[in-house]
Structure of WGR domain-containing protein:
Amino acid sequence: MSIIRQYRRDEDGTLQFREAWFEEFDGDALGEFVVNHGTVGHQSKTQQAKDVDAEAGAALMAAFAEQCAEDGFAEIPAGEQHWVIAQYALKSTAGTGRDNYLRDQAVEAITGHLAWRGLGTVESTDFAPGRLNIRILSPEPAKAVSAIKTCIREAKLDYTKLSIAVGAPGDVENLKQKHPMPPTGRFTLA
C-alpha cells in the first residue's frame, strides 16, 4: 500500500492535512482508493472509491499529489517533525509476554488514533530495561500528547504506567517529559 500524506498551515496558523492511499487486497484484481483530510488534531473526513484497478489507482494517486501541490500542501520531512515517546514502566527488567501484548495493543490504539487526526505515525518500538518505548513522529507534538493520553484511556490500557516526552525535530536524545506533570526526574529511553 502506498500513501501520500501532506500538510499546509493556514493563514491563522492552523495545520491542515490530506492523505490518500491505494490498497489492493490479496487475490482481488480490484482495490480501494481512499482520501482522508481535515484539521490536524481533529477527527478527519474520509472518502473512498471501491473496485479500483491498479492503473486507475495510480492515476488517482498522481492526481491527488498534483492537486495537493496546487493547493499548497507539502510533505513535512521526518527531520522537521518532533519525536513523541510514549513510555510504559514494566514490572520486569526484560519484559514478558504480557508486555508484548501491551506493546501490540498500545501501538494499535495509538496508530489508529493519531492517523485519523493527522497527528503522526508510530515509527518503532523497543524494550529497554524496565521500559517499553513507542517512538512517534508528529508535526504537532502538544496535540499528539493529548491524543495519546485520550486513546490509551479509551483503549483501557494501563494509564498509570504511562509517561510521555517530546523531543525537538531530529533530536530523540534530549526529551522533555509532558506527562505526568510535574516530571519526577530525567526522562530516559534506556
